Amino acid sequence: MTETPTPTRTDEPAVLVLEDGRRYEGRAYGARGRTLGEAVFATGMTGYQETLTDPSYAGQIVMMTAPHIGNTGMNDEDMESARIWVAGFVVRDPSRVVSNFRSQRSLDDDLEASGIVGISGIDTRAVTRHIRSAGAMRAGIFSGDAAQLTHGEQLELVLGGAEMTGLNLSGTVSTTESYTLPAEGDRVGSVAVLDLGVKTSTLRFLAERGFDVHVVPQSITADEVLALAPDALFFSNGPGDPGASDAHVELLRATLREGLPYFGICFGNQLLGRALGFGTYKLPFGHRGINQPVLDKATGRVEITAHNHGFAVDAPIDRVSESAEGFGRVEVSHYDLNDNVVEGLNCLDIPAFSVQYHPESAAGPHDANYLFDRFRDMVIASKETSA
């Protein structure tokens, strides 16, 4: 067992301010200063490192509902990207001792080194209940000199922050240069991955299914994708409002019309919905955590799944629909048992499907990991048909 030094405890004041004027006073945690973003809560009892480094959380102040955070420290192996993406971090009780055989440093160290302003020592249960009632909203964390601003000044800064609705963040999180991961084992073919905030585990699972994984920037055009001659296309997870990603929708429509097999996760599910002609809408407080029950309509099986989305596709879950964009019949393949939110789409006349949740979840659960096998099988079948 490796034990890292006890993180520094502080009594320096900090405050979480919501746009409706609610204030929660606590202690400074991580870097000092001020940060703005959308306040959301994540219900996972583990996996805080994967949450922090998931690009889908860009622009959001993430509050962990589990009360004790940081006990297993941080390491280089569990990073879902090259950096921490959250706008801010809210916890009730930071661990006073970091003890795990894989730990290389404390969470406190990484937050401070990455400039992530956080707050601890507040009643996260009370904040969660308020957000569940009032909805996700703009917020700010203020510590250090920023904690000395007046209540009115702090609230004014929060109200001046960007709203998530209408916000396009793909350019912030996407790679700027293409790169390739080689296939592992028996090669199936190649897949072009549009990086809208892709996670490391997603790329690994695709490579393990025999794909050469060509990761491309979100700014790529349909002609440039087709020039790569991939055997399939994949759209990743990512932050922001799918209603603000018209260029990605048009790219997807163009490649679907060329018959390219498609798989999308999270943001990629929302963009498939838009490409097929459905609308999207903002959820009151979203789904974030690793314990969401989802029904697979084809099998009747309930999967416990990992979620991180504040928007959803507006499609009927009780019948097969006709795509308004000419892509044939479409069915909702999965839906959330808590609120009937669409969690998956399956095209019946073209080789394309998507899910809203995360089958690649590195912190678990792994109930839906089989979807990568389904994608591989779909690509193989498509290649045999066109041969």
UniProtKB/TrEMBL annotation:
The keyword Ligase applies. Keywords: Amino-acid biosynthesis, Arginine biosynthesis, ATP-binding, Glutamine amidotransferase, Ligase, Nucleotide-binding, Pyrimidine biosynthesis. The active site is at residues 266, 358, 360. GO terms for molecular function: ATP binding; carbamoyl-phosphate synthase (glutamine-hydrolyzing) activity; glutaminase activity. One of its GO terms (biological process) is 'de novo' pyrimidine nucleobase biosynthetic process. Residues 1-187 are annotated as: CPSase. The keyword ATP-binding applies. Its EC number is 6.3.5.5. InterPro entries: Anth_synth/Amidotransfase, CarbamoylP_synth_ssu, CarbamoylP_synth_ssu_N, CarbP_synth_ssu_N_sf, Class_I_gatase-like, CPSase_GATase1, GATASE. L-glutamine binds at residues 56, 238, 240, 267, 270, 308, 310-311. Composed of two chains; the small (or glutamine) chain promotes the hydrolysis of glutamine to ammonia, which is used by the large (or ammonia) chain to synthesize carbamoyl phosphate. Tetramer of heterodimers (alpha,beta)4. This is Carbamoyl phosphate synthase small chain. It comes from Agromyces ramosus. The gene is carA.
